[in-house]
Every structure is written in structure tokens, then in C-alpha cells.
Amino acid sequence: MMSVWLQRPRFLHLALFVAAYVLGCAFANVLGIVPGTSISIWPPGGLFMATLMLASAPSWPWWVLAGCVGELIGQFLWFHSPLPASILMYVGNALEAMAGAWLVTRVCGRPVRLESLKEVLAFVVLGAGIAPAISATVGSATLAWFGILSQTFTAAWPLWWIGDATGVLIVAPLALDVFQNWHGNSRLSAARWIEASVLGLIFLGVAALSLSGYLPFAYIIMPPLLWAAVRFELRGAAVTLIVLALITAVFTISGVSQFAGDPESQRQRQIMLQLFLAISALSALIVAAISRQHQLAVLRLRQSERSLRDLVETLPALIWCAAPDGRPIYFSQQLRGFVGFDVEDKDVADSSRLANVLDAIIYPDDLAAVKKLFAHSLTTGEPYAQKHRLRRFDGEYRWVEMRAAAMRNGDGAIVQWNGVCLDIEDQVRARDDLRLAQENLARASQAASLAELSASIAHEVNQPLAAIVANSHACQRWLTADPPNMERAQKRIERIIQDANSAADVVSHIRALFKHSRETRTSTTFASVIAEARDLMAEEAARRRVRMDVDVESNLPFVMLDRVQIQQVLINLIRNGMDAMDSSADDRVFGIRVRRIGDLVQTEISDRGPGVAFPDRIFEPFFTTKEHGMGMGLAICRSIVESHGGQLRVENNEPHGARFIFTLPVDAPAEATAVLAAGHQGHALQSPDRQGH
């Protein structure tokens, strides 16, 4: 109840509704031309139904109450029916209006504008077809029950139904248009006003001639009626239908209409009158809906075209279109601004527009290739794509990427070429700058690599050279002693020779590494290589207070390796592990563990330092985590191991530290030879025993 009270209409609107309802009753009374009946066209039904279509459901009780007031006033003034009969007939009218409004809005939704064929058909079938049957049934039963004017149910029902249907068809469209456009700002242009005036005069003239009986055919009014529906849509149809109903009423009342006649034929003429108005209304509404749909469709195929054109004009690309023969027919605003002219500007008598446009915008060195490829696309229908230089309006040539594709109709024939031109000058320059930067970087990298490699080689050779210098000084002291100590000098000379040979070996093996040479590789037991590396680093480990924990599996197989290079790998990894534990206050333990795993010899070198922060980059050249590191040691180690057919990787230990793991393949032929030799040796040892027996 609260929602009904809050949804109450304004009193002025209710009063206007009651007044319009009473006037509709008067109009119906005027058109009651059948003697002895009170049944005719019922305009209040159309007004009532249109009001409920636009009103909210909670406000319906107010409109039903106002309609009841209007019905009772109309019955009192015009029809003089008994009060119970008037109330029953109004119940039928109210049920008709509510049923029609509910059915139409259920199908069409709100608001109902009758602008589409679906809405019009739903309105005609449900609002003007089904809903009036309710009122006709209740009203005809009431007339028969109360014996008003000796009406029977079967005689009254058809007239009642068609009268209500005609009233709905004529009045409801105009009421919907007026209610929804009460404050509308739509205005007609001067030309439209002239057209409406001419149409009105023609309509009035034809209606007067046809309905006055001068012309025997009443439906001659249809052409101007449909003209109004086509040109002015729903509003034109609704207004002309009301005018037609009024003119028909005037001529019928005056008795000169072809729908007026003797009492014996008056019933048939009443039905003809109602059918005439109903058919006219139905035709006008359908034509108006079709016209409106067409106008909306045209307005949408135009809005889409305008949107597409706006989109094309604002795209950050140069758009163009060409005829099937390649003749340019459209340049977008962006392209016109770029080249400084439009396609029509290059029309010259006795010459091709395409050739003129290409000559004006294509770089001379690119022109022949562009014409050839574009001609190929025009001939075959294949898409066109090419990069070339395009002349800008200021004379500067810029690199562009031109692409085009053929647009075809349903039969597959080319109807137009659509193309896009992308300015890639900045990309081309950036690519050139990048290539130049990459070349400079490559040269710088080569120089840096050479410098780092030189430093690495110097680092490797520095130790034997330093030993040579130290032993040379010692030899000099023994030779200059008085008397000279030849024995000690001789020993120092032997150490000098040994250190010099070591330096030469380092250089030759480094050269062999970068030449991928295998000449310096020999089949060696890996345990001996580990032992040599441990002995070489023992003094440094003691100095740095690092305990070396070496665990080498017994009976390791032979490995084909370059002894000096593998020692370089071991020494580098051992030294890196010691460096990692320099800042450690805990027990500094460095572990070396060697095991055979299948056909591989695996070596693990672990420390208890902070671990490796970037394990995926630690082997990259020039990448280092040391403050004064060169970033070449681990890269060279990996190169050495991989050149031997092995792999080198790093893992972080738990809870701290790192573990470098590298593998080397077993020398299978040497292992087989060793097994065979061991077998022969055992056989030889057993032979004398067998002979002794």
C-alpha cells in the first residue's frame, strides 16, 4: 500500500485523464449510428490502454479509479445506463486496458514506442485483438443480463469487440506519442512544414470526396494516409487517423456518408465503418513502423559509415583506397597531409592518375620496383607489401612500409583495393643506430676480451717467471761467492730450466686450447692430476689457514686430458674457494671429492663461503663478483672442461657455501687395455706354478 501511495500520479494528470475519458465517451455516443444500440467505436479504451502502458504498475490503481470516475460520468451524460450495469461495463473496460497493457509491455518491454514492426504487430494482436475480447464479453453479457435496449449477447459481442479494437488502434498510437514527447524539442524544418501542409490539404480533400459519397470507394483515402505514415512515421499516422475518424464522424452524423443509410442496413454499415477505420489504422501503423525501421537502419548503415570514416581519419596511419585497376580514389586526411595533395589533384589529361601519383611520391630509385610489384598484385589479386621511400610534402623522403589487400564481392571479383602506409623512418634509423652500436660493442668486446685474455695468460705465466727470477738471483749469489758454490748454483740453474719449461708449457697449452688441439692430451690416471694440484696449492692453503679435505676414490679409470689445462681448472676452482672463505670466521675447510659415475669421472670442489649469488651467470665472460676480478677464470675453466667432452656447473650448499662439479669422460680404450694387461699379468704369474706341478 505504501508503494501505491508513493506512486500516485499528479492530480492534474488524473483530472486531464478523466476529462479525456469523458470526451471519448461523447465521441462514441456520436458514432452510435445503429438504431436501438449503444455500441460504437470506443476511444476511451485506446486512451486507457496507452496510459497504463507508460505508467508504472504501482500507479495503476490510481488510473483505474480515475477511469471509473470518467466512465460513470460518461454513462450518466450520454448513455443513461443503470449504475450496476455501468460499473460492470467499466470492469470489462478496465480489464481490457490492463490485460492489453500487460501483454504488450511483456512482449515489447518499456517504453512502448511502436517504432518497430515487432511492436506494432504485438500491439495489434495483443492490444487491439485479444484484450478487447474481454471487454466485449463482459459488456455484451451485461447488456443481455440487464436487457438494455433488448440486446442479445451474440448480437452485441461482434459490434462491441470491433468497436473497442478500432478505438484502441486509432487513439492509443496518438496517446503514446503525445505522452512520450510532451516536452520534446523535435521541430520540423520549413520544407517539412510545407510538405505537411500540402499533405493535409490533399488528405482533407480526398477524405471529403470519398466519405461524402461523391466518390463511391472510401479506401481511396489510403494513398495520402500511407504518405503521412511513410514521411512522418508514427506521429503522421496517428494524427491522420484521428483526423480521419473525426471526418468520418462528421459525415456519418450528417447522413451524407456512405456509412449512413436506412435502418434496415444500418447494422451492416456500422460494421463497415468500424472495419474501414480499423483497416486504415492497421495499414498506417504497419507502414509507419516499416518506414521507421528503414530510417533507423539507414541512420545506423550512415552512423557506421561516419564512425568508420572518423576512425580512418584519426588512425595514426596513412590510409588509401584504389579502384580495381589500381587508380587511386581516396587518401585519408593523414595521407593528404603527408604528401601534400589529394588524389584528384594529379588528374592530367591523356595520362594515368596512378602513374602521376607514383611519380610524385615514390623515391626515383624505388619507383621501378614499386610499379613492378604493384602491377603484379593488380594482375594476380595477391596482397601487396613493400618497403620503400615516400616523398613528404616538404620534399623529404622517408622510409615507409606499404601494404594493400583486395576487397572482393560475393562472387570473388575485386571491387576495391584498401591500403595502409606506415611511416617506419624512425624504426629504420633506430635499426641502423642499433647495428652501429652493436658493431662498436663487438669491437670493444673484442678489445676487452683480448685484454682480459692477455691478463689471464700473464696471470698463468707469472708464477713460473717469478720463480725463474728468484732462482736466477740465487744462482747469481752462489756464483759470486768466494769461493763460488758451483754445486748450489748448478741446482738453481736446473730449477730455472724447470720453471722456464713450465712457462713454455702453459703458453703452448693455452694456444692448444684456442686451436681446439688434441695433440697435447694423454691418457692419464685422474688421481695423479688431483695429487699434483693439491701439492701445488698446499703452501697457499696453509698460509691462508685453509684445511684441504681430499677424498679420491681408489682405482679411478684413465682419462684422456691435457694435464696442464685440467690443472689450471683445478687450481682456479681451488683458489676461488679459498677466496670465498677469506671472510669466514668458522672452520675453513675446502673439500675435493672424486668419484666414478658410470662412464664419467666426477669431481666436486666445495667450500664453506657465502655461496654463489648468481649461479646462472657465474660462467659468463667478464662477469665477476670479486672487487678486482676480471671475470675470465670460470669462463676459461668451462671452455677447457667442455673441450674435453665434460660439463662444469655450480650448486649452493646447505646451509652455506658453494660446490663446483665437473665431469670428464672415461678413456674407454685405455681402460680396456689396462684390464687386458692385468689379465695377462695374472696368467703369467700362475704359469710357473702350473708347470711346477
From TrEMBL:
The keyword Nucleotide-binding applies. It is an enzyme of class 2 (transferase). It comes from the Bacteria. The chain crosses the membrane at residues 87-108, 120-148, 160-179, 199-222, 234-259, 271-290. One of its GO terms (cellular component) is plasma membrane. It is a multi-pass membrane protein. Residues 384-436 form the PAC domain. It holds the Pfam family MASE1. Residues 456-668 form the Histidine kinase domain. Its EC number is 2.7.13.3. This is histidine kinase. The lineage of its organism: Bacteria, Pseudomonadati, Pseudomonadota, Alphaproteobacteria, Hyphomicrobiales.
